[in-house]
Design a protein that fits this description.
The complex is a heterodimer.
Chain A lengths: L9 H16 L3 E2 L5 H10 L22 E5 L7 H10 L5 E5 H6 L20 E3 L6 H16 L6
Parallel strand pairs in A: 1-2, 2-3, 3-4
Helix pairs in contact in A: 1-5, 2-5
Chain B lengths: L1 H21 L24 E3 L14 H5 L5 E7 L11 E9 L8 H5 L5 E3 L14 E2 L1 H4 L28 H5 L28 H5 L1
Antiparallel strand pairs in B: 1-4, 2-3, 3-5
Classes of the chains: A alpha/beta, B alpha+beta.
Chain lengths: 156, 209
């Protein structure tokens, strides 16, 4: 009988790992382009970089169908409540990528009109530096997030 | 009938491109983590602080880069060199050097402002971080080692091509104090332990052809 003894929670942890892997393979992004970063986000979805390789080609207009919010661009004080509402409407599990200097920290717009970093409004999992980050930079951020989810380093 | 012929016309294009991609022709997608796109010579990537060939730091702590930075992402504090063990030629050196990569807009105005060509840019762009603290690069990450290699905060990152750190941004050649506008066929910056082999840049007509 000793040969048949599994470590405790063998089944549930294995399912959890499989579920985490499966979640990374089709993270549908919510469309949240706010500025020039959105152009690069669109380029990431286009043929030359093809976000469909990661199962992410469907940018959902409805937050109810999205798993990942890519905040692409500067968030003004007036946009902040909208952003939070979109985030709240997304079903769990959900993740946030803060794309570019403005979304991550305010960037060069250090003034009263802009939120100095979108993490003041929503919890951010991965920050992508760049102004704007190119498609490959964004994909690096996405891959970083995927790896963190698989390793269980972020809540999912 | 009209609809069917229009449909046939459109699907013929789809089918042609689809069949061509099956035999591996006409595919435009770059499989990013496996292959990298060739970047333009003047691509602005991560910064690096250079050294002279004898191992001395080029930065003199003058804070001109911090003054030129439109995003105010650079923090420099200079300190006096110890006379018997100097860090840089001259009186002062950069004692603290920090760049907040999340504020940086990679405009290379710091590179233009630097009087000693201490700060340059490389071609590395994979810098995604999971916390804002990680994005603040200190002198430890920015300053190259005496052997000319460049440190990186995440050397085991499977998705980053760290050889990009060896490629320096060609922009300095036209804007550096020792540079000249007529960069064509001229190798600038031979006298450096920098991370670069500086091939002469072709003139614009050749490049665009």
């Amino acid at each position: 009988m000793a040969a048949l003894s599994f470590p405790s929670n063998f089944l549930t942890t294995t399912i959890d790992k499989a579920a985490r892997w499966a979640r990374t393979q089709s993270m549908w992004p919510a469309t949240f382009g706010l500025a020039c970063c959105a152009i690069e986000m669109m380029a990431t979805g286009a043929a030359h970089n093809d976000l469909a390789r990661f199962g992410m080609e469907v940018f959902r207009a409805s937050p109810r169908q999205a798993d990942l919010m890519i905040v692409a661009g500067r968030v003004s004080q007036k946009m902040a409540p909208v952003l939070r509402q979109v985030y709240d409407q997304m079903p769990d599990p959900k993740w946030v990528i803060s794309m570019g200097a403005c979304a991550s920290s305010g960037g060069m717009f250090n003034n009263y009109a802009l939120v100095q970093g979108v993490d003041e409004v929503v919890p951010v999992d991965v920050y992508v530096p760049g102004c704007p980050p190119g498609p490959q930079s964004l994909m690096h951020g996405i891959l970083t997030l995927q790896r963190m989810i698989v390793e269980g380093k972020v809540a999912s | 009938m009209g609809v069917m012929s229009e449909l046939w016309k459109g699907l013929r294009v789809t089918g042609r491109i689809g069949l061509r991609s099956l035999v591996g022709r006409g595919i435009v997608t770059t499989e990013y983590p496996k292959e990298f796109r060739t970047k333009p010579q003047r691509f602005h990537g991560r910064h690096v602080l250079n050294r002279y060939p004898d191992g001395m730091e080029k930065c003199i702590g003058c804070e001109l880069c911090a003054g030129a930075c439109p995003a105010q992402c650079i923090y420099v504090r200079g300190a006096d060199n110890a006379p018997d063990d100097p860090n840089s030629p001259g009186e002062r050196f950069g004692y603290v050097y920090e760049i907040n990569m999340l504020r940086c807009i990679f405009c290379a105005l710091c590179v233009e402002a630097c009087p000693t060509e201490a700060i340059t840019m490389t071609h590395l762009f994979e810098m995604s971080v999971t916390s804002r603290e990680e994005a603040i690069y200190t002198k430890e990450e920015l300053l190259m080692r005496p052997d000319g290699t460049v440190p990186h905060p995440r050397p085991d990152d499977p998705y980053a091509d760290l050889s990009e750190l060896e490629v320096a941004d060609g922009w300095v050649r036209a804007t550096a104090p020792s540079g000249s506008a007529a960069y064509e066929g001229v190798k600038m910056w031979q006298d450096t332990a920098g991370p670069a082999s500086w091939d002469p840049e072709p003139d614009q007509e050749t490049r665009d052809a």
